[in-house]
Amino acid sequence: MKQEEPPVLISEEKIRRRVEELARQVSAEYEGAGELLLLGVLRGCFIFLADLSRLLTIPTRVDFITLAAYGPDAAPSGAVRLVTDLRTDISGKHVLIVEDIADTGNTLEALVNTLLAMKPATLKTCVLLRKKECMKKEVRIDYLGFDIPDVWVVGYGLDYADRHRALHYIGSVKAD
Length: 176
Ligand code: IMP
Ligand code: MG
Known about the structure:
Blueprint: E1 8-10, H1 12-30, E2 36-42, H2 46-55, E3 60-70, E4 76-84, E5 94-102, H3 106-116, E6 122-131, E7 143-148, E8 152-154, E9 170-173
Parallel strand pairs: 2-3, 2-5, 5-6, 6-7
Antiparallel strand pairs: 1-9, 3-4, 8-9
The structure holds inosinic acid and magnesium ion.
Inosinic acid binds at residues 44, 69-70, 99-108, 152-153, 158-159.
């Protein structure tokens, strides 16, 4: 089945350069701090985390969690649900949440609060994309890829009804 190609919002080249910059920044800031646990939020993070993790020059571990924030129809449900539990005990560890996108910021905020209760040594957030609305929230993004307008984006791991995740660029689709 052929899928229509969504228009480009952020090119593959731009993403690559920005991820390299983020990796340099993260590597520099955690240099000498010991192991960093990269905690990916599935499924949208999978390509971002794969690229970022391979560019880091510090020792890392990788774990994943699954959250449900939106249904397959791309309509916000409000609630955030922790679907898969961590396999790693994060207490006393340096943890970096790796997330594809912050829209309302609800997911990130809920996740940060849940993880803080597990007493990590440090907890920071690395988010590839941020929509404008998210800026109204108190949630802190320590490493940000790009600010984007309020459109539904796909590609580089992100989906619309589970499609377009494998696109090399970030494209926009009309979510109707
Ligand atoms: P928030 O809780 O409103 O910040 O939504 C965060 C989650 O919704 C993200 O982790 C994504 O999984 C999903 N999401 C929000 N906006 C988009 C989008 O434009 N494309 C794909 N997924 C999105
Ligand atoms: Mg996500």
